Amino acid sequence: MLRNKTIVLGITGGIAAYKAAEIASQLTQTGANVNVIMTEEALQFISPVTFRALAGRPVVTEMFDLASEFSIEHVSLAKAADIVVIAPATANIIAKLAAGIADDILCCTVLATEAPVLIAPAMETNMYTNPITRDNLAKLKARGFVIVDPATGWLASGREGLGRLADINDIIGSIRQVLGRGGDLAGRHIVVTAGGSHEPIDPVRYISNRSSGKMGYALAEAARDRGAKVTLITAPTSLPEPVGIDVVKVGTAQEMRRAVENVASRADALVMAAAVADYRPIKAAKDKIKKGKAGLTLRMECTPDILGTVKGKFVKVGFAAESNNLVENAREKLRQKGLALIVANDITANDSGFGSDTNRVTIIDRKGKVDSLPLLPKREVADRVLDRVVVLLPKPRSRRPKKL
Ligand code: PMT
Q: What pLDDT does residue 65 have?
């Protein structure tokens, strides 16, 4: 979704300026055109040569550069931009923008653009928490600027505190989310489940499976990037929490069921990529079970079938990880659980299914249409599944456009 988008990346003079190199690199790798603007202060921290090399485009450092390809720079950059991103943003640039001061090329570009502007502040804790900075940020927010809040951690002063530039994945996720506003899922609420449930045996042991959560997280991010409000109900995974998504953390199948039921009445679609345990120990032991020579027999019972029993008017999509009779088994699950679609996941193919970054799936609908996809990155599988969900959603009721 970032391919061919034009992104102005504004870099201001803070120690986190070096992290902007990674942002420029990652955005360029997605196929975006990255036009870098550096303030005079940013040049004290990092060379424009770095950005010239990473983005493969000229870097703008002055208002009137006669050698540049841009005619009147701030105007042409502002006009071409799909989004303006300032990362890192110092207290100084935030103050200037809040006051409408246009005394450098970056401020002028922000004032001249009609594109959304995203700001990722990075500064000393006291500067960030100072009421003047807080007021300035609130003012910008009220004017429609998107603020990616800083993180807590090690600061240039040698102290720990709030003010570190937000995680780069969060900044790029926020860019995707902003650019996805008005996408084909705008105004929709998509609920996604991910990961393998944990069914406790005792306080330290549990039964689970090899689900990494990657498929579910890819679906949640893809839905966010198409404009949806997304709730991700996730069993434990080691994946970072995606930005711009309501994340509900659960452990057991029973907890996942409760979480799904809590949001179901507000959902337009439920996509269950989670590998929910089919069985759980009848009773988890209160204390850690001691090792014994006789071995251990666990008595198990069925977990609740979440997808098969949840009620509502939303589009229901299931996944089926199968090692044999892929289409027949998946069709049977679609029928039993009353689904609109099922995504049959071939876990015998290389690099497909549990834990991998790619997946090989066949999408089957209620009418029996079978669509076999090649091995694709999970993010692309997610978009193909959502393409099918979009056409099944009832037409949205007409709404007045939201004011920024
Ligand atoms: O997480 P990854 O490592 O990326 O791996 C992705 C995946 C392989 C887990 C995913 O692509 C997948 O196939 N998920 C479904 C796993 C499965 O085999 O589900 P199932 O056949 O047991 O269940 C069918 C459907 O019913 C699923 O949508 C499941 O979420 C749901 N279900 C299952 C059991 C249960 N008690 N309640 C349910 O709602």
A: 66
